[in-house]
Prior knowledge:
By secondary structure, the protein is α/β, with parallel strands linked by helices. Among the domains are: 13-176, Rossmann fold (3-Layer(aba) Sandwich); 192-341, 3-Layer(aba) Sandwich (Rossmann fold); 347-414, no CATH class; 1018-1049, no CATH class. The chain is 28% helix and 17% strand. The chain has 30 helices and 38 strands. It has a 24-stranded mixed sheet that branches. Strands 2-1-3-4-5 form a 5-stranded parallel sheet, sandwiched between helices. α10 (251-267) packs parallel to α12, α11 (276-287) crosses α12 and α15 (370-379) runs parallel beside α17.
Amino acid sequence: MASASSAARVSKYDVFLSFRGADTRKTIVSHLYAALESRGIVTFKDDQRLEIGDHISDELRRALRGSSFAVVVLSENYATSRWCLMELELIMEFMKEGTLEVFPVFYGVDPSAVRHQLGSFSLEKHQVAKMADKVHRWRDALKLIANLSGVDSRHCVDEAVMVGEIARDISRRVTLMHKIDSGNIVGMKAHMEGLNQLLDMESSEVLMVGIWGMGGIGKTSIAKCLYDQLSPKFPARCFTENIKSSVSKDHDHDLKHLQKEMLCNILCDDIRLWSVEAGRQEIKKRLGHQKVFLVLDGVDKVAQVHALAKERNWFGPGSRIIITTRDMGLLNTCGVETVYEVNCMDDKDALHMFKQIAFEGRGLPTSHGFEQILVRASKLAHGLPSAIQAYAFFLRGRTAAPEEWEDAIGALESSLDENIMEILKISYEGLPKPHQNVFLHVACLFNGDTLQRITSLLHGPIPQSSLWIRVLAEKSLIRISTNGSVIMHKLVEQMGRDIIRDDRSLARKFLRDPEQIRYALALRDGAEQTECMSLHTCEMTCAWSIKASVVGRMHNLKFLKVYKHVDYRESELQLIPDQHFLPRSLRLFHWDAFPLGTLPSGTDPCFLVEINLRHSNLETLWTGTPMLRSLKRLDVTGSKYLKQLPDLSSITSLEELVLEHCTRLEGIPECIGKRSSLKKLKLSYCGGLRSALRFFIWRSTRQQHIGLEFPDAKVKMDALINISIGGDISFEFCSKFRGYAEYVSFSSEQHITITSTMSLQQAPWPISECNRFNSLSIMRFSYKENGESFSFDRFPDFPDLKEIKLVNLNIRRIPSGIGGICDLEFLEKLDLSGNDFENLPEAMNSLSRLKTLWLRNCFKLRELPKLTQVQTLTLTNCRNLRSLVKVSDTSQDRRRYCLLELCLENCNSVESLSDQLSHFTKLTYLDLSSHDFETLPSSIRDLTSLVTLCLNNCKKLKSVEKLPMSLQFLDAHGCDSLEADSVQHFKDRPNQEVQSCFKETEMPSYYVMNHQATRSHQIIRLSKMAAALMFLGIPICITLVAFLVVFLLRVPVTRLKPDV
């Protein structure tokens, strides 16, 4: 790519090749040069040099100085050349200065011969008096390079393989050597800010920080950016890359090599280590008084950390040690308490990154609908940066024809990129067999399910499944969410399914493909080995049937799942009930739209843990009394023909019963109330107002009790910790809290909070065993003016409540005394939308933890109490609201308000709006949509933290002057009187840009996203966000983020759906 003649023209090289021309120019050097050139690595190779004179030429010195990397090919006669030795001396000097990385290739020579100057490296030829000083420096250079990590050709299969491996290794190292401009990498600024806070650079303590995340998520890039940014501040520094790839069968040799390489890179000295323990002592001795910045990248074994940085006292005050790994358990074992977790990109950043790579140096296509194609392409990676990059490179350079892109995206959707597969597979291959087994079960069946459900289903066949699942989370193969759900990244899931598909024994154990299932059932080929059968009926290409007896003879079958999309056409799978159906080994029986009217009688599946027959044709569950002593969950949601449940008294382990949208269900057996094991009940009841389900709470001496009263049965439910009922409900707590509702929900579920310093084995279970509720919802689905009022004189005694929703109940008064909401000290969220009170209790100010308050459609509300603690307040359609704050509030009171987000949409009766807004100096979001003012309230200019301002449908608004400099989003949809000239003053601000849409005739075609609305749709994006969108190559007129926020906050006056 470069030669000596071009050195003057090219001032920068990736690689400088140093070699003995007579030995290697026509062999390995020519092949290596070609391999590097094919990888786009700018390489300097002196083809014409004359080895004469006593000095390195200025031309070669400049080429070497301008290189990032030097590859030194040490051949048999390398040291016989005085010229090569002078070049090597200069190379090692640059390495000591920290300006050059060096990679030795021992081509047919023993590294120990180089280290000890034996044979042709003895330098006897140069042993003359006048050369003594030079020979001494050459010996030091040979010792130093012999201790560096490189390649020994004597241990390679053949030269072609060796050259390929060297080129790949050099390519990776060169990529790492390049300084990364973090400002050009999507999301990197936020990573740097987060890590800088954790590193606390002002502290003199020695800090160890882990960077943890799944494979391909960008840990190395983040660590490299951090190293580029901070390492110059440290006199001693080292980046040890991809440590896991350095491991071989000789464990101690690998660790010694890592220790020597680290010390050599930091100290530029030849250090001999006879054992790993000697290496530890040497690190502590040499670095114990130095301020070190050390990055250990790609660590996968505790021994690697213990060999290089086991104790903080090995390094001087102010040192920082960064460890990147996929394994949280490793960090816990090594005592790393500060961990930065790297998460996948959100859709916005993923699209930004995809466009940045796929269209680098080119404009975006302007074809109609192409934006949606790009969104679809970017979502293929599900936020994984390495996958986004791979897909973007695959699609880069293609024509802008939508058809070509559609075909290419279709190909990517059908198979996982090989490079991504290898990256993700590393973590799987490092697992013991039991862990791999659990991983494959999650990938095949349980992605997205709760930890509790998965462990209960796997407990029989895999007794320690709970521990193994937590280990998968430590290894970054899954994530356990705060509500206890096990989330596996879609590409990791696809990798797991590909592993099953490519392994014949696993493919028989886990049946997933419809045609393979059909074949296996028809021919019974390998059916006795099948443990899991998961059939997505929407993927069936034709109708076919299964005999119940065939399934019944699959004696190892543990998990049977037949599922479909809810709104998909009728299932094409038919079941013929000829004989015994459920094998005794079965633990999961899941069949969406189950076609029979009752379960076939016969063998009792005594290990069955869950029956899930959603949207079935069941009229009754079963006849007789089956022995289902292990059954924990029964879900028959949407079974519209089901009228009654059979006797469930023999099911002693039942924990969850789900009967939602069973429209003909007349009630539940009284024996349900006697089930101390039952923790969760969800049901829908449609008996009408005359025979409404009575939901009652009553007190005894020591506790409160919950009961359900149907027309024909009364059921006591004391053990429940999660109950959700929809339909016709008469709710009653004594006589103090009662009325008609359409939805009632109580919950005691606790969220799992797994911090970076918490071992996953110590994480709590998702559901506690206490029966004290922390969430309550009582709702009607729509608000009716002058509707029947829900009586509210006293609140049930649930002191642990954190969230309450009392919605569309026409409540006329909120009690303030003992037994009211104001006694709930843990309350964080309160929704009182759709009620008829005129004011709220002053005592609500004592709810110190209350941060979110919704008061939508409270048409009679006139004033608010002093709510200095609330951070988010939504007052949409409070048409009679006069006051947000107390008139008596002083300037000191104003400083106490914590409000960050305020929605006053269609609240036109607020008096002295400008004065009242001035109390909320911390506001970042303000919605004044559907107001009648002609000019904005003057106090808005003083809201110095305001980021988003919504003025939609302010029909009389004429100007938007004097806005705060902090503003980034201005949404002015439907402001018919607002003229384009009114925003001209923004263009005169320094470092500000205004982009606005007023008339469709002023815009190129690619601006118009909804041309019918452009005349009344005006959205202004201010400069701070403009830079973030410049990668698009075209101006953006519609602020989608702000529009989405406003849209989500709007609630129709007539209808409000509950969070069922």
